[in-house]
Each structure stands twice: as C-alpha cells, then as structure tokens.
Design brief:
With 495 residues, the protein is of the alpha/beta class. The chain has a single domain, classed as TIM Barrel (Alpha-Beta Barrel). Helix content is 36%, strand content 14%. The chain has 15 helices and 16 strands. A nine-stranded mixed β-sheet has the order 1-4-5-6-8-11-13-3-2. Strands 7-9-10 form a three-stranded mixed β-sheet. Strands 12-14 form a two-stranded antiparallel sheet.
Length: 495
C-alpha cells in the first residue's frame, strides 16, 4: 500500500469575479484580486505526491517501487500477495487529519511509483495483466477510504509517464531504444509508449466502471483523470504551423482525453502511428467513452509548434511521431516567455487560458479542475531559510495564472471548478532530485526538514482570505530580471 501514490490536494472554497489580462505581466490585474473574484463554490487547494515527500522508502511495511534502489525484500504489489495494514493506517490518519482541519481530500491512485513486484512479475504497464491488479488496488482504496474521500483521480499525467519512462528512459522503469539513451538496458521508444498508454487507459476505464457499479450509490464520489500538456502556439500564421500545433496537442493531451471522451484515439495519431497503436475493441471503446466525471488539467508552460520536422526512419520514437518542431523561440528570436529554473520551463500565463478554452471546445465542455500549476527555482544551498523564502516571482506566477483562469471562466464560460497549486512544499523532483524547488513552503533539508512558509504562501493566504490590497502584493517583476531570479532565488525587486 505504501508503495502506491496517494496525492492529497488540500482544499478550501470561494466567491465572485471580473475581466481578462492583456499580456503576460498584466499591470491591469486589480490590486485586490483575490478569491472573491471567482464564482461561489470555486475550490482552491494545493497538491503534492506521496513518493516526492513521504520518505521512509523501506520502513513500516512498505514494499519497493520502481523508483527505489534498496534491496527488494518485499516482492508483492498485488492485493492477493497481502495488504500492508500499516500503510492503510498511515493514509487513514492523513485523510482524517485533513478532514478534521476543515479541508477536502482529492486522492490520486497512481502517481508513477509502480510496485516493483508488478514490474518484475510481468513488466508492469507493458502487460495487460496490470488492468486487473490496478482495479483490485483501486477497490481496496474505495473500501478503506471511500467513506471519506469523494474525489478520486485514477492517473496522474499519463503523458509524462509514457514519455519519460518509456520514450526518454529518464524516469523509472527507464526503458527506451538503445540509440536514444545508453542508460536504457531494454525498451523500444517507437512502440512501448503506446502499449503503456493503452493499458493505462484500460486501467482507468475499469476503475471508473467499478466505482460506478459498486460504490457510487453509497459513497457518492467523483472520478477523473489528470493530464498535463504544453500549450502549443503556432510558430507562424501558416496553415501548416496551425495544424502542427493541433497535432502536437493530439499526441500529448488527446492521446488520453480523446479515448475517455469519444472512445477512440485522435485521428491524427491513428493516421501517423498506424500499426504501432494498439487497437481498441468495440467493448473497450464503449468502456472508455465518457469514463470520467471531471478532467484534471495540469499546466506549466508553452512552446511554439512548427511543421515538417525531419524524422529519420531508423530513429522512430513516440516524442517525434507528431513530426512537429517544438521550440521555445518564436520567429522573432524571442522566447515565448521568461524562463524558470527547469530547462523546459518558460512562463506563459496566457497558455493556461488558451488550454482551458481548447479543452471546453475539444472535449464537450467538461467539468475541469486545474490539478497542478506552479513554478520552480534553483535550490540555492548557500542561502539561509530567511533568504530562500523570498519568492516574488512565484507570487507573480500564481497571480497572473489565476487571472487567466478567471478569464476563461468569465469570458469563455469554461466549467472550471477548482485550482490546485503545485506544490504544497519543496519535494524530490524525480530525475533531478532536490536541485529544484516548487514549494509554497521551504523545506530545510539541512535542519531536520524544518518547514517555512515562503512569501508566496503568505500571499496565497491573503488571496484566500480576500485580504489583498496594493500594500501587501509583492512588486511585479521585470522581464529582464526574471531568469536570474528564478535560477538563483535572488531577486531584489525592479527599480
């Protein structure tokens, strides 16, 4: 149990709202912009994942996951192999404490840390056997936690999982084509991402219908799937580049949202991938179609999409199948926005509004929760906690992105019901470890993991309490100084 990822998004609630920004750093955002601008009942929260913050990797009955390196002395992973009651007790305590503090838990069943036992037994999500085991695991969670948990997310970022774990090979279980990454001992970047995607989708559908059939009447909960994508701006006004942007979205976003909405893979994906894409049977198609109560949308950044990428026939892989050149630089040579710390991350607040509008149009106006949105900075180990908690760029990031979310709700009538900041606190950022900090709370790794609220956390608190005014909003940040600030965590303000 402890090796499965439960994500708790800590929630609150809200009020009413105004207009729309004109550019990335929009000086027209009202000084008192706060939760009162959002519709009644709008949910605010923050999220994180079990593997990234819990620790105790080989304690309290926890078996190893594909991300662990210690001796594999717990070979389980299936319910029939035994349930770790210490894990059940741990999550019961977390859920109960959350509710006791007036908050509402959103729980994610799979956030990438697959039990090593299932990877060893049959290859994990490469094998269809995973569908039954995933359903059994989900049912255990419904039985033990469903009396209190009313919002379930089956899968977190399946696009990231297939891309980094089975195409790039940089995430566990580290599979890819040998020509792509010498660290991969086995794998096929042209086929395995699609096989894994197929079994992820079937696991989601099986779990959704299990809940609807056996638990919905008594527990009255909701189930969704959380997906991430870049927003793609056409590189130019050409028809080819506009088509390239659509194709890029279909290969990331649509590969999962299309089947669970319409019961089939996107036509562009089918036409390009052909026989490497597993076929959905009629029964599978029917099970997938409309298999969610809400969609979790996760947004961080954007790229330009340019048509006619050259793909060599001996270098076929999932991430280049779309035949799109993805670039952060536009025709004018300028980046799409100021960079954060991670090399792929450029700040483009309008992208979240465009993505929400697109989701409404493309997927039949679903209920949406923004289940992740946040920004990172370099972990500067020379700074004291007092220095490190100064993060005006993060406050600005949340302010501009929330303003764009509001624009989608007010001006495009997108059915957004909630927004969750990533992350609650600084955490282990997968393959780049502790070099990056995404948290609203600073974690002092050198001092018994002491936690300190960052400036952005204090801003969020005022935002939620409707206490913002021109006197307590951190100064907006200059474009030219954003890069160094985000990378060094050393911004001192614009002159």
């Amino acid at each position: 149990m402890g090796s499965k990822a439960l994500v708790l998004a800590i929630l609150l609630i809200s009020l009413l709202g105004p207009a729309e920004p004109k550019r990335v750093l929009d000086e027209d955002i009202p000084d008192d912009f706060s939760r009162r601008y959002f519709p009644p009942g709008f949910t605010f929260g923050t999220s994180t994942s079990a593997y990234q913050i819990e620790g105790a990797a080989n304690k309290f009955g926890r078996g190893p996951s594909t991300w662990d390196e210690f001796t594999r002395d717990f070979p389980g992973g299936r319910i029939r192999d035994g349930v770790n009651e210490q894990g059940i007790e741990f999550y019961n305590n977390v859920i109960n404490e959350t509710i006791a503090n007036g908050l509402t838990p959103f729980v994610t069943l799979f956030h990438w840390d697959l039990p090593q036992g299932l990877q060893d037994k049959y290859g994990g999500f490469l094998n269809r056997s995973i569908v039954d085991d995933f359903q059994d695991y989900a049912e255990l969670c419904f039985k033990r936690f469903g009396d209190r948990v009313k919002y379930w997310i089956t899968l977190n970022e399946p696009w990231s999982y297939i891309s980094f774990a089975y195409d790039h090979g940089t995430h566990a279980p580290g599979r890819c084509s040998a020509w792509l990454n010498s660290a991969c001992r086995s794998g096929n970047s042209a086929t395995e991402p699609y096989i894994v995607a197929h079994h992820l989708l079937l696991s989601h559908a099986a779990t959704y219908h299990l809940y609807r059939k056996k638990y919905n009447r008594t527990q009255n909960g909701k189930i969704g799937l959380a997906q991430v994508t870049f927003w793609y701006e056409p590189y130019s006004d050409s028809i080819a580049d506009k088509e390239a942007a659509e194709t890029a979205l279909d290969f990331s976003y649509g590969l999962f949202f299309n089947p669970i909405t319409y019961g089939h893979y996107p036509r562009r994906v089918q036409d390009i991938v052909r026989d490497r894409l597993l076929k959905l049977t009629l029964k599978e198609s029917q099970l997938l179609k409309k298999s969610y109560d809400f969609l979790g949308v996760q947004y961080y950044t954007a790229n330009y999409a340019k048509a006619n990428a050259i793909v060599h026939t001996d270098r076929i892989r999932y991430r280049t199948d779309h035949q799109v050149i993805e670039t952060a630089k536009g025709e004018d040579g300028e980046h799409i926005g100021p960079p954060a710390h991670s090399p792929w991350f450029y700040i483009y607040p309008k992208g979240i509004r465009y993505l929400l509008n697109y989701t409404k149009e493309k997927y039949n106006d679903p209920i949406i929760y923004i289940t992740e949105n946040g920004v990172d900075e370099h972990n500067n180990e020379t700074q004291s906690p007092e220095e490190a908690v100064q993060d005006p760029w993060r406050t600005q990031f949340y302010q501009t992105h929330l303003w764009n979310v509001l624009g989608s709700i007010r001006d495009y009538n997108v059915n957004v019901k909630g927004y969750f900041a990533w992350s609650y606190l600084d955490n282990y950022e997968w393959d780049i470890g502790y070099t990056s900090r995404f948290g609203l709370f600073y974690v002092d790794y050198k001092n018994n993991l002491a936690r300190h609220p960052k400036q952005s956390a204090e801003w969020f608190q005022k935002f939620l309490k409707n206490e913002l005014s021109i006197d307590n909003i951190p100064a907006r940040q200059c474009h030219s100084e954003f890069t160094e600030a985000a990378q060094q965590n050393s911004f001192n303000g614009c002159q």
